[in-house]
Fold this protein.
Amino acid sequence: MSTSSTLKPAEVAVALVEQAVAKHNTRLDKTFFKAVLAGVMLSFGGLLDLVISGGSAGLTASNPGIVKVLAGFVFPVGLVMIVLQGFDLLTSNLMIFPMAALKRAIPWWGVPVNWIVVFFGNLVGSLFFAAILSKYDGLMTEDPYASYVRSFAITKAITPGWYQILLRGIGCNWLVCIAVWQGTGAKETFSKIIAVWFPVWVFVSCGFDHVIANMFSLSLSIMLHSELTTDLYIRKSLIASLIGNIIGGLFVGLPAVYFYLGDWHADGMRDAEEARIERKNSGPSDSEKS
């Protein structure tokens, strides 16, 4: 019996394909509501990021890099909660579903179906959090936070070019998928938290674009009457960051298939559901042993 605290890269690749198979075979209503909760969890981290960034105007003026690092440090709490609770976030599915489809563990049509359901679930959760837990509860409606959120929309979605947002989206999901890869490879909770935390800290501090995180922060800026309009947000930020996130996810998933899954076959995994995957990984119960 192995005493290693981490999985080998090839084992991680197999585990990610098995996750995709399980998610593919999960009922769509469950997938949708797990995606809604993922949007909420990620927004908790996003809100804390805004609290630190928006409440540090003096420090930002004298040392903006420190504020970016501090705000980036707290944001990963959202992805940690998603990973530990097993919710569905689009950006990680952008990696694992093409991996499973390439190995014929799931049909190709399962890729867009899952992406669409999870996208709208994440959107609903993000909009709920922005409206109910950030605006209507008054947390972000007074200065300095309201003015920061409005100015954030300008620097995040209006000033950059479309191609710049796309490139930032690539960098973002490259790091997010590395975080998910590392978290999958860790076998116990504390190691998973650390493994997920650092790559996400890097992407937020550097200012890369996460399509789901932007659903919270930029939607909140629109609710607070920033210069960003819904039409401009969709045309310029959402589409560009989504395409960039897809490419970034493929930059992790495709090499993994090439390096580690060349001779791997799905076999009996094609019909597995989430509960079966969890039981497989945890071992047989006492009743099954008897």
